Amino acid sequence: GSHTHEDGSVSTWDGAGNGTHTGADGSVSTQSADGSSTHTDADGNSHSMDADGNGSYTGADGSSGSFSADGSSTHTDADGNSHSMDADGNQSYTGADGSSGTMNADGSGTHTDADGSTSTMDAEGGGSYTSADGSTSTWDADGGGTYTNADGSSGSYSADGSSTHTDADGNSHSTDADGNSSFTGADGSSGTMNADGSSSFTDPDGNTFSSDAEGNESFAAADDPAAGGALDGAFGGGDPAGGDMPPPADDPMGAALDNAAAQSDAGAAGGQAPGPDSMADMPDPGMDSDMPKPEEDDQGGGAVG
């Protein structure tokens, strides 16, 4: 039979339970005895479903999709982006720009961007990332991680607050969980900075500056072989210059000691009074010396008595 409604829509049916309906707006629907159906609306969007509950649709804008009785589905939008999900809840997608990814029911997933960068995430919350420029990073569920930048710098960090970093030039720095830090420079310098306020620094020449927690500072100079030779000459009765080479021009302390020793030797040999104080023009080295100045020596031994 058939029936025309007051709004102009028309319905038909047969004895087996199949029917159709045409709306006044031009939409059309069908219904079958087995439960399957179709529908196309006035705008051209269509939808169908079979007797088992599986269906598909097409939008007037060009989008389309499908769905199954088991819960799986697909969808492609008008721009070409697509998405699918299986019966277990695992998903995947592909972007019109070339990007793609997965999202799994256990929480893990992947993503690849249109520029080639990639990222992953595991079910526990850890993951990794690689950018298009080659830099990489990783992280774990506990808050720790590592990274390497495109310029070659790299580092790591831990959930307890400790970390390390090495820059592209080879300078490195590390901090432990208690806030104590240390660093090593590419030039050979190094140092420490502790949570209690103490610190130390050793320059590339080996000179060390340090400060304790109370702010007291100290300095330790690197060994100076030239100065050591001069001291040997002054106190050992040998060559005052510490060898056949003259005192170095950039070692004023060593040169002063050499001159003092030479004048002392000359005074003792010739019975003369001490000459001018060669140390008088020297700046105070910042420490008391156990060595008396030349005028304090009894260098006129030959004339006494």
TrEMBL record:
Residues 1-305 are annotated as: Disordered. Residues 27-48, 79-121, 129-139, 169-213 have a biased composition (Polar residues). InterPro entries: Tcp10_C_sf (IPR047002). Residues 59-73, 150-163, 219-229, 251-267, 274-289 have a biased composition (Low complexity). Residues 230-241 have a biased composition (Gly residues). This is Uncharacterized protein.
